[in-house]
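re: ur question from earlier - yeah i can do the single chain one, its not a big deal. heres the input i used so u can compare w yours
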Amino acid sequence: MTKKIGSDELQNRITFSNVIGVLLENKKKTYAQYQMIEDIFYDCLYNMDLFEKEDFEKNVTYSRWCTGERPIPKEILCFYDNCGFDGIQDNIQDDVIPNLINVPATRKLLLELVMDSVDVIGTKKADEFARITDDAEFITALVRYSILNNHDSRHTLLSPDLSDILLSNKLPSVNRHFLGRKEELKVVSKALQENNLVFITGTAGMGKSELAKTYAKKSEKKYTNIIHLFYDGDLKKCVAQMEFSDDTVDMSEDMLFDRHMKLFKKLHSDSLIIIDNFNVLPKEDTFFKEFIKLNCKILVTSRCNISQYETVKVSEMDADTELIELFYKHCPSAKSSEDVVKDIIQTVGCHTLTVCLSALSLIASGMEPEELLAELRTCGLNIASGEDVELYKDDDFTNGLIIEHLRRLLQLGKLSNQQLDILRNLSLLPVAGILKNSFKNWMRLDNLADVNHLIKYGFINEDTDNKKISLHPLLQEVISIETIPTVTACRTLLNSLHLICLAHGLELRRPENIITSLISVSERIIVDDGAYFLLFLQDMFPYLDKYLVSDYLTKLTDKISYLMEKYKLESPCDRALLLDYKAECFMLKKDYGNAVKKREKAINIMEKLHTKDADMRTANLLSNLYNNLSNIYLLMKRGNEAANALRTAFDIRMEYAHLGLTESHDTLQQMMNLINILLLAKDMDNAKIVLEQYESLVQEHLLDTSLDYGICKLSKGIINMMEGTPESAEVNLLAAESIIGNAVGTDNDYMKTTYRYLNNLYARWKKPEKAIEYRDKFLGVKQSVLKQLE
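and the output i got, formated as tokens:
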């Protein structure tokens, strides 16, 4: 029975897959599909990267075009839109038509496509095609129309390719020993074909993440983008913490989140997002329901039992085949003890992660399989009777037996003190992973031999594609229990991170690798030295504040307050600094009144120590408090009070110059703030006095190629213009352009300001060509900055 097609089911059959299908059905056997595609689009393909790829890879891409799985790329369409379709017509005439078996029959079949589509394209368009008598022109017209039709179709929307701008969250490396799970891979593939959202669920350590990564790796050519988000408690934060090439240091987390979500909303079903380690119920993350409205495919791994969404359950691998093979892959020498290996697998509950580590520990320890079995059986728990591994709903998602077995395997690993120390420190860092080279530097390791040893024996995961190392969440828990990561024991790591906080510079992008590590350490470390850790957290606050990690600052302030109370660390400096940080949190909420009160209270505490015998910390903090107070007044548009507070901050630094206080970069920031205030007030004389001091400090302590020196030249040029000396203004502004450009590039507010003043200078100075040149430069930077803020 033939189904009647309703008005809502009308189809346009003039698609590229149908047009090319007719040509392929009527070609000579010796004329390959890939050759026909390359002949048709030769003029464009010759200039594309695709043309340089291996034949196999090209053929896969061409096949997708021919089957309709993917439309012809827009860059091909744009190429012919710009230069016309005459090249295609010539290629069809010279190369395609000579390789068709029966041209009239081919034309007839193509006309049938047109007639079958009349209800969609209309009689006028169908007649237009039919009137074309030249075969090459007729085929070209249908090829052109079919490409346009594919791109107009709502079913073939393409995602933008993010590979050039996405710096993080790329698909992690797949475990080279991954095996089995063939049925699960098929189920995941089918589920994602039919649903935009699919969960992979199962007990911790069963291989959910590896299954997701392996599916993605095998399907790489199917997706334009594959993005990997490692869930660490807040999906919104995961999105914000992604790194794109045009993210900048002055963007808050909210700004970054908005920008990244705008990109996500441009993704379609040809893109896949993996949310790994999502070990909460969907309703427990307030943003999850909004996130899954995206049009792309989303694959989630979770230990929770999920009922409301499409789910693929991962259970134990087959003990007699897959798990034995997995054990032998890690420990080939055990093949002679098959019965004992089976007993080991049963003893550890057929738990995938524990089976792998058992095999690796067997090699590392030098034990016989029988000895390892005996050790594992001493754990005191046994589920050989067939009990299921429990899955808890609360925060403890792991079973006591698994933990005990993993602890035992860690003890049997015969690790050196250095290797245990590496694991101890790594247990403090984000489970999502840390850059391998950063970890080496932070731990001050001479080489990575011990890290590589731990990778080899399965205690550390290595993501070679992203150059990261990490611990499995289960292992992180076990290692933390076994190695006890305290402030004292992890002092090397803390010192390295502390130094980074103290020496932060002018980065172009937010250093997420460091930010996430600082937060992870502050959350996980065991405090046994309150005084040191207080100083660490105190210096961590301005670092996170600089990079606008605003949502964590209140929590960090609470940690500082708790630490001071617990360890009775209540010196005037500590109390004043805590008040200053609380003021900053009020500022972030735009509660300027309370911010002023907190800072004034802090100043009252410190002014009692404002004597000739004050130490460097006291003098520095007092100066900074006045400087910070001036910032609030500026936001409140109370210029006179801002200027007075800033002048006081500067005077204090001069008063304690013998302590080396003027060498601090804080002085430069305070002085530049004061110069800007004086320029706004048109107080040229005082502005020049402060600027001379500023330039003197920069020349004494920094290079004449530094950003600070470039800003100095910019300020001089502005003063020259305000005083009506264009020649001097030109010299200083051009110097500023050169120095700032070399120091931090052109896409920033410093360069925008420089261009604006040069444009203004040349316009006043009757040099129209130069004025236009700098107007265009200014507009170029402005557009770039605006795009970053979109």
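The two ends are 55 Å apart (CA to CA). not sure if urs matches, ping me
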